[in-house]
Amino acid sequence: MLEDHTTTAPSPTEWPTAYPQGYAVVDVETTGLARDDRIISAAVYRLDARGEVEDHWYTLVNPERDPGPVWIHGLTSEVLEGAPLFQDVAEEFAARLDGRVLVAHNAVFDWQMIAREYARAQREAPVRQRLCTIALSKELGLPLPNHKLESLAAHFGVVQQRAHHALDDARVLAEAFRPSLRAAAAGGVRLPLLECRPLTEWSDRPAPRIGQQASGPGGGYGGGYGGYRPGSWRPSRKRPACPYPNPGRYEDGKRLKQGMRVAFSGDTSVERELLEDRATEAGLHVATSLSRVTSLLVTNDPESGTSKVVKARQFGTPVVDEAAFGQLLRDVESAEE
């Protein structure tokens, strides 16, 4: 583990009183993206109310299973075998999150991974709100070519030294978050804070033990990098029929409206069932297939050749990614409006 302390002078900017008092900029590397994948390294940069670095912390974590895509994160079975288990670092990790807003790039993914690890350890992560830097960059209208961390870093002139290394990714994000936060404060922008709901129970399926390492991009990555697997902690159920008529297609720059038909394609950071639940609760119709009357397709890979993506191109169906859809869900127009 590594810890360091850095302090700098506070910004003289007039600061919104409603902004949080502290942030924990987090990055985790994992064995994969699915619900039963594990954290293999974690880093936290603690920032004060104005985004100045207070300290940072980093640890490896023994996932007790196949480490996944070594060609991406570089962490082999041999390196991780002597690392602490998550339950051994859970208390120190929690101390660095406690009372702060969790900040991450595609924050829902990092939060879900952290929440699951704490549930396995029969504990709760002390996090009540998260802030996604993808969502913040959209609120600020930053002219980014895409939502990658490297693009956000380049916009603010932050040099990335070791991509997919938790400590360096967290450092890069902390350095990019500070000017983002100041720009938001100067412009009176409301921060896109979302609630974090800890998991309270967990059940894992058997997975390859550490030492049974994947050999390359084609194999052993927990069923596929980003693969979705049905959860065992929530019972499956038939969704109720949407009570609102379909108002038509979603239009870019406008709000979703209750009754719109939304289809999903490909892997999602939030478990698919949970994402569909949120859509249903907002009054949207979750469609299992895509047709000419589908209002919107949600996919993180619009260039894939899935049948839904192909049909969306044919029909001219609007397409947004998961992060954008999450923001749209925050303000769905009533069917009566």
What's the gist of this structure?
With 337 residues, the chain is α/β, with parallel strands linked by helices. Helices cover 29% and strands 17% of the residues.
Question: Mind sketching the topology for me?
Answer:
Layout: E1 2-5, E2 22-30, E3 39-48, E4 53-60, H1 70-73, H2 77-81, H3 86-97, E5 101-104, H4 107-120, E6 129-132, H5 133-140, H6 149-155, H7 166-187, E7 193-195, E8 261-265, H8 272-281, E9 285-287, E10 296-299, H9 307-315, E11 319-320, H10 322-328
Helix pairs in contact: 5-7, 6-7
Give the CA-CA distance, first to last residue.
54 Å
Major beta-sheet overview: 7 strands, mixed
Shape: globular
Low-confidence stretches: 3-12, 206-237
| Strand order within the widest beta sheet | 1-4-3-2-5-6-7
Fraction of residues in H or I helices: 25-40%
Mean pLDDT over the residues: 84
Structural class: alpha/beta
Q: What is the alpha-carbon Rg in Å?
A: 20 Å
